[in-house]
Design goal:
The protein is an alpha+beta fold. The protein is built from 18 helices and 10 strands.
Length: 670
């Protein structure tokens, strides 16, 4: 009966979303505050119903109710409680319910905290959010219902994919969906702006906190996914340009561009058309990601293998939703007001260049992701596009973008001073040059790419600190005055600094790990040794252990540092999950400062003399910890910025400055 209650709540949420859409649209037409209040109440009710429905699904997994098809296919009574809970969103059906939970949750936030918006703009945005909820809830109810009963329930379930039974994968989808679906509010506000013909500074100020919240959550979600792939898949890497990885990365790139474009629209009234376009594109890429992961067109450990029929339905949702949004944009864009003029060297120009490079980078990722699918559909030829393509196309664009990044915040609005910026950044440039030269001179093996990458990371960090120094007039004012200014810096400024520094930290880690990584793989018998990057690995023992829902061979490996001291005692495992008959590797990671000694226990293999040994693979991943700390720092920067009182959700009620009537020379990109 509890499961039926969840199914009923799901259908009720569908009805309330339809009511939210219709009544809010009527409120806009009739200018009726009463109807607007009813529409907002329906949004809150839809979220409450989905929350209840989702709690019911979690309950079904916790109690192992195998009469529910979703539970029987993705859970097992011997599975630990944490992973039974995570199984609720570990399948296609459950993940779509999580998507709907996030979608209606954002709709409720928009309805409840949108007091700063004009009544007409808010009514349209709530109506659009209701329409999105209606579409995805209808898909969930009629094509992917997580509460479908089995006529003959099995005694035991088939369990969740063992690779997904991991704490990082429990947290990864909620954060990822909070980012994906958070862009739906920006989409709704963009549609409302097009309908109302209002793309002024107040509107741009309104979309910034929503974009920032989605961007921060997406940053955390992508980082958790990369960290999971790093230590769970046993291949020693953290990013492979997998199509499903790209599906989450593309909305992140668009959201990053939108954050910067919205600043130009807010401060100078410029680029309104481009900002609207990015707001529409962000959620369109999110829906594209949902299609790629759930359509069955991709083969990936991250993807849900589902039937093509549901993939076609998702593609239809993407086509209709994004198509209507961009059609409205094409109709209304010519009537948008132009922003103010600005010089080629100015903060506006720097942000425009930032957006051009981010858009080009997104296009390269999109092409590399979709081209194999298009080629296979048209020619029947299966090909793959891997890291070499992305390294050749994406990396140069990012290198140019990151090289120019520290100069942007130091440029003045409307007309900047390039010479003045150079004078403020000479210390940062000197630090970056010194690190690059020292790397070439001292690093083994020598690598110009590695030296340039480390110099770039140092340039980003030092440039961010130089921007803070400029804000507090360091060395140009008394120390007491500089400290006073430091304490008075707005949180938004601190957030930007942390985000840019986090990017520099990530670059340092990625370049160092990629350039100076070492690997060894040998079949060892007990007592034998192998070496990797000067570390000596000694296989001491391999014994069987029983886990809560798996059987494992666990190795005991002593790792000795180059100086002969014991670095760590590692226990990598090779697990067998009887419920699904799947085998996985549980790696052992020894943290050495910022670096990782990464050890994997492979298969038992026969040797030529008739004896047997174990394949032991060791990786030395220098500075690998920075790869995950950097994005974490970026997400913290986003959260700090979001806490700035100037970015609170009620900030939109500030009066907007009238944009200058002149045509902006950079408006052509819109």
């Amino acid at each position: 009966m509890i499961v039926e209650t969840g199914a009923f709540a799901l259908v009720l949420a569908l009805i309330l979303s339809a009511l939210q859409m219709g009544v809010s649209a009527a409120a806009r037409v009739r200018r009726s505050p009463l109807l607007a209040a009813v529409g907002e109440g329906a949004a809150l009710g839809a979220f409450a119903c989905i929350a209840a429905s989702f709690a019911t699904l979690v309950y079904a997994f916790v109690v192992s109710d195998f009469s529910v098809a979703n539970v029987a296919a993705n859970s097992h009574s011997e599975k630990p409680l944490l992973y039974r809970i995570g199984g609720a969103w570990g399948s296609h059906e459950g993940s779509m319910l999580l998507w709907c939970l996030a979608l209606t949750g954002y709709g409720a936030l928009l309805a409840g905290f949108g007091r700063g918006l004009s009544p007409a703009l808010k009514a349209v945005a709530v109506a659009v959010q209701g329409a999105l909820g209606l579409v995805f809830l209808a898909y969930t109810v009629f094509a992917s219902n997580p509460f479908t009963r089995l006529p003959a329930p099995p005694v035991e379930g088939r369990s969740l994919n063992p690779l997904l039974q991991d704490p990082a994968l429990i947290l990864h989808p909620p954060f990822l969906y909070a980012g994906y679906v958070g862009l739906s509010v920006v989409f709704s506000l963009a549609i409302a702006a097009l309908v109302e013909g209002r793309t002024d500074a107040a509107w741009a100020r309104w979309i910034r906190p929503w974009t920032l919240a989605a961007w921060s959550a997406l940053t955390v979600g992508i980082t958790l996914g990369a960290f999971w792939a790093y230590y769970e898949l046993g291949w020693g890497g953290w990013w492979f340009w997998d199509p499903v990885e790209n599906a989450s990365f593309m909305p992140w790139l668009i959201a990053t561009a939108l954050l910067h474009s919205a600043v130009v629209t807010e401060r100078r009234g410029a680029l309104p058309g481009w900002t609207i376009f990015l707001a529409l594109a962000g959620f369109a890429f999110s829906m594209l990601g949902a299609f790629l992961v759930r359509s069955g067109v991709l083969t990936s450990v991250h993807a849900f293998a589902v039937d093509p029929t549901r993939g076609v339905l998702l593609l239809t949702i993407l086509g209709v939703t994004a198509g209507l949004g961009f059609a409205l944009f094409a109709w209304r864009a010519p009537a948008m007001a132009r922003g103010g003029l600005f010089a080629p060297i100015s903060r506006e120009s720097a942000l425009v260049l930032n957006n051009i490079l981010l858009a080009a980078a997104t296009a390269t990722v999109l092409l590399g992701t979709l081209y194999p699918l298009i080629r296979e559909a048209m020619a029947g030829e299966a090909i793959s596009v891997g890291p070499p393509y992305f390294n050749l196309t994406f990396t140069p664009l990012m290198f140019l973008l990151l090289t120019l990044l520290p100069a942007g915040p130091l440029l003045a609005w409307k007309r900047g001073d390039a010479r003045g910026v150079a004078e403020r950044l000479w210390v940062a440039a000197l630090i970056a040059l010194a690190i690059g030269l020292l790397t070439v001179a001292l690093a083994e093996p020598r690598s110009l790419f590695g030296a340039a990458g480390l110099a770039l990371g140092a340039w980003l960090i030092a440039g961010s600190l130089a921007e803070v120094a400029e804000r507090i007039h360091l060395f140009r004012a008394p120390a007491r005055e500089s400290l006073r200014r430091l304490g008075g810096l707005p949180r938004g400024a601190w957030g930007m600094t942390l985000a840019h520094m986090g990017l520099g930290v990530f670059v340092l880690g990625a370049v160092f790990e990629t350039t100076w990584k070492a690997e060894s793989a040998e079949v060892l018998q007990l007592g034998q040794r192998s070496q990797v990057a000067g570390y000596e690995l000694v296989l001491e023992d391999v014994g069987g252990v029983d886990g809560p829902n798996y059987e494992a061979d666990r190795a005991t490996i002593r790792a000795f540092a180059p100086d002969g001291r014991l670095a760590c005692l590692a226990h990598p495992e090779r697990r067998l999950y009887p419920a699904g008959g799947q085998t996985t590797s549980e790696v052992a990671i020894c943290t050495r400062g910022l670096s990782h000694l990464y050890i994997v226990l492979g298969e038992r293999r026969a040797l030529p003399d008739g004896s047997a040994g174990w394949l032991v693979t060791g990786y030395w991943n220098p500075w690998a910890l920075l790869i995950f700390l950097g994005p974490g720092l970026m997400a913290v920067g986003g959260a700090v910025s979001l806490s700035d009182r100037r970015l609170r959700l009620a900030a939109g009620k500030r009066a907007a400055p009238a944009p200058a009537p002149a045509t902006s020379p950079a408006e052509g990109v819109a």
